[in-house]
């Protein structure tokens, strides 16, 4: 019985040693991952899609400003007309209507601003998703498994209007940094910019359809 227990103990120890050796061998045989980096600031500054997006957002903002100005001027013109009305009841009725229109215009302007902010947020989200998708394709074609955003040299932002002390602002920005060094040889920034801009300028060929003979 004692010999059996010793044999089982030796068998368990041998199994543990073999498992540990297999794990170590697996770790040593695993190939290292290829890592690349990009400068997100340069990408946003140079991609054509960002410029197109900002033009469209500016056009939307200008359209809103023009419509708001036009409606304000219409109310002001009618307010001046009310001054010429001699009947007190009629003049007061018109002014009450104008006051209601001003409130409605204020509510309309507030709603439009919320919609514009939501649209801007969606456009930025869509732009980011496009960058991620194109970075994915580029990384696969170049043989990289990871693409990091290099933020080690980003400028620190200081807002003197904020209630937070400037020192604390900088400290918080330092704490959010993730990549302190990135090799130039593995920088895919310019390649990604070129890829995205080429995608915007390449004309899309419509598929040809063949109609059946009558």
Keywords:
214 residues; mainly alpha; disordered C terminus; two-stranded parallel sheet; 4% strand
What fraction strand? under 5%
What is the residue-averaged pLDDT? 85
Radius of gyration: 33 Å
Question: What percentage of residues falls in helices of 4 or more residues?
Answer: over 70%
Order of helices and strands: HEHHHEHH
- Global outline: elongated
Strand order of the largest sheet: 1-2
Largest sheet: 2 strands, parallel
Structural class: mainly alpha
Number of helices: 6
Number of strands: 2
End-to-end Cα distance? 95 Å
Low-confidence stretches: 7-15, 210-214
Structure overview:
The chain is mainly alpha-helical. 70% of the residues lie in helices and 4% in strands. Helix 2 packs parallel to helix 6 (189-201), helix 3 (48-83) packs antiparallel against helix 4 (88-142) and helix 4 crosses helix 6. The longest helix has 55 residues, at 88-142. It is elongated and about 90 Å long. Residues 7-15 and 210-214 have low confidence and may be disordered.
């Amino acid at each position: 019985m004692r010999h059996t227990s010793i044999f089982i103990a030796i068998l368990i120890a041998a199994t543990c040693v073999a498992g540990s050796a297999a794990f170590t061998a697996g770790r040593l045989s695993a190939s290292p991952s290829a890592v690349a980096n990009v400068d997100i600031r340069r990408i946003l500054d140079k991609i054509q899609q960002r410029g197109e997006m900002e033009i469209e957002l500016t056009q939307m903002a200008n359209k809103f400003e023009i419509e708001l100005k036009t409606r304000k001027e219409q109310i002001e013109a009618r307010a001046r007309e009310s001054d010429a009305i001699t009947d007190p009841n009629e003049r007061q009725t018109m002014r009450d209507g104008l006051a209601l229109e001003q409130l409605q215009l204020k509510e309309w302007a507030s709603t439009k601003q919320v919609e514009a902010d939501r649209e801007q947020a969606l456009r930025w989200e869509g732009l980011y998703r496009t960058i991620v998708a194109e970075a994915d394709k580029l990384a696969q074609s170049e043989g990289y498994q990871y693409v990091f955003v290099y933020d080690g040299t980003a400028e620190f932002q200081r807002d003197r209007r904020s209630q937070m002390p400037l020192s604390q602002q900088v400290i918080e920005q330092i704490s959010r940094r993730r990549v302190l060094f990135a090799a130039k040889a593995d920088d895919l920034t310019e390649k990604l910019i070129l890829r995205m801009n080429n995608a915007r300028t390449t004309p899309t060929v419509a598929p040809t359809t063949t109609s059946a003979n009558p």
